[in-house]
Amino acid sequence: MKTIAIVSTAGGAGRTMLAASLAVLLARRGREVVALDFDPQNILGSWLGLDTLASDGIAQALIDVSHVWHAHTWRNDEGVLFVPHGQLTLAEAAACSARLAANPQWLAGAISEIGLADTGVVLIDTPRYPSPQADHAARAADLVLCVCPPEPAACATFVAHLPALRESCADVRLVVNRLNPAREMQRDVLAMLRVAAGGTPVAQRIHLDAAMPESLARGGWLFDEAPHSQASHDLHGLAQHVDAWLPAHTARAPS
């Protein structure tokens, strides 16, 4: 079993969309997939098919050691096992942060309780890095995918936090999201990023597609509704990149 953390150093980078899309595409390739929501926004389930925000989840185990978070998992129609974060009050959120600060290996221990085959994968959605949750996810991960829009501020924060991310996880790769080649500034930013990131591998570039939020609103996936779009091709490319990184398995035919 491998663990992948999806992080970003800028808000609105699209990490939750990518976490959900990657979970579904890997499941369609025959992988056992667990999608773990470790973001207090608690919205990953909305992408995976839940109609309401999950009230209970893994965060409650940080507050109450007797809480059995495994009882609140849910499997969607694609076969992805979803672990919700759960709803928290402000006081509970502060208590969770304190617990995480006191036990840097808490999430790694929780993930070790998930019984997947060697070829399975746990995908962790996180809040913006740095944060206690994102730090735990990076430390627990075998691979960190850092999602970065090709904007000056987002790239600057990525470069600033890259040393800390590499200290937490030896394998950090970049996913450039919402790329619009028509914008000259973005091409310039990407060129500077390649230099400043010091050889950080680029897992995939994903192009901007205005149909993405519309697909979510309809409860569908862009790669099903617009399979020939550039963004759909890019998402499949990211899934291929991760699938090749994971231990070899015999993939089932797509449904």
TrEMBL record:
<dbReference type="Pfam" id="PF06564">
    <property type="entry name" value="CBP_BcsQ"/>
</dbReference>
<dbReference type="InterPro" id="IPR050678">
    <property type="entry name" value="DNA_Partitioning_ATPase"/>
</dbReference>
<dbReference type="InterPro" id="IPR027417">
    <property type="entry name" value="P-loop_NTPase"/>
</dbReference>
<protein>
    <submittedName>
        <fullName>Cellulose biosynthesis protein</fullName>
    </submittedName>
</protein>
<dbReference type="InterPro" id="IPR017746">
    <property type="entry name" value="Cellulose_synthase_operon_BcsQ"/>
</dbReference>
